[in-house]
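User: For my dataset I need records formatted as: sequence, then structure tokens, nothing else. Please produce one.
Assistant:
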Amino acid sequence: MSEYEELLSSVSSRLCSINQVHILSHLDDPSNDESSKLSFLKSIADLPLESLSQFLTAALREEEKLQNSHPSDDTDPDNVIEPFAGNVISTTSTLPDHRQLLQQAHEAGLDAIAKGQVAALLLAGGQGTRLGYDGPKGMYDIGMPSHKTLFQYMAERIRKLEMIANNNNGDGNSIPFYIMTSPLNHQATVAYFTDHDNFGLDVTFFPQGTLPAMDFHGKIILESPTTLSMAPDGNGGIYPAMLKHGVLDDMHKRGIKYIHAFGVDNALVKPADPTFVGYCIQHAADCGNKVLWKCQPTEKVGVLASKGGKPCIVEYSDISKEMSERTGDDGRLVFGAGNICNHFYTLEFLTNVVVPNLGNMYHVARKKIPYYDEAAKTTLKPTENNGIKLESFIFDIFPLSKSMAVLDVAREEEFAPVKNPPGCDSDSPDTARKLFSNVAKRWMKEAGAILVGDVDSDLCEVGPMKSFNGEGLEEWSGKEVECPFSIV
């Protein structure tokens, strides 16, 4: 029996068992060559076919529950939204006991890194399309003097942190760098890192998963006779992808205990941040969230809160005006912990708590999905929603946490999003460049440097290999530094 015949037999049997055999109905069309038919069968064989019905049923059940609930309904204890009441501390606090705790957290994080217990996990599936760049978003250059990409900044911060944790001893433990790509940018991302010798890091790549779209009756949709309509499963797909591609097993083998996960579109992100990691370790947290406190009630960002007594991210549209404007004794917004996709997990939590609950993580997204029309013998684009895509979010696992720790950080020090095209007045390369430059100038002034020249320049840079967080710049104390500058 040929490879094709064996695969056809196996796939047909699986599809029959779940009542989805219709997707093979055009396999024998004369226009399909052997190569395309074999590729089609392989793409089907790789899917979690037997779990699709469970995913869809759970997602529809959750959709119905949400449609029938109201944030103001306090009669249902599972629906009550309250401020997060767990461990929260701010890096901007000036209280002596807070400063001491943060310093101890930093040291605990460095100790864990030195012991080889910490991994960095990057969500890098995005493309640079909105930035006008044809390629992985991580390969985008925001325009600093060194012309380093987002990938390079992150990689060099990890390399510098390794050196700090190991007291500049090159023989110490590394910080494994795991990068989740997408099917669209996987090859380009791997090639980029290969061309740069992985920036001296221990890097592992794995692609985000995709799931087939289904019609409203749960039937898988064909886009062409030998192509399924597929869609990424959301950034929450990082968990099943880590399981599928052996990332969790690899972490276990390496002795990893703690994971810091973050998105690719923040030019100021601190990978494996020892203060954040150490803070979570100190509080025996199974999950952690680094947040930015909202300045205005109207900021359209999801916030960390408690729903039914469990931590969760609540969208701004699900919070009443009164709730969004409510302040505490310190004058800050009670519902102010803005989510920025910057998370901590223990490996034990991911393995023993998250993985067993993966089937309940998906949400329904009703979309206009191109489909193959048998009568017209072509792919049609519907004008109305005709199907369902399943997606999940990275924070969907928060309610599973029994001990969450939250670190509130300064916006101007740790958040420079790169999402909108050049010229936009928010979240663009221009605004990121200014934030990046302001950090460099602040570090230099704190080190005792005297800035002269164009002190308002947005082209001032201190490279990651020179300093991870403002340390190691003492040589400029008392010296004039001409702006703009590039110290890399």
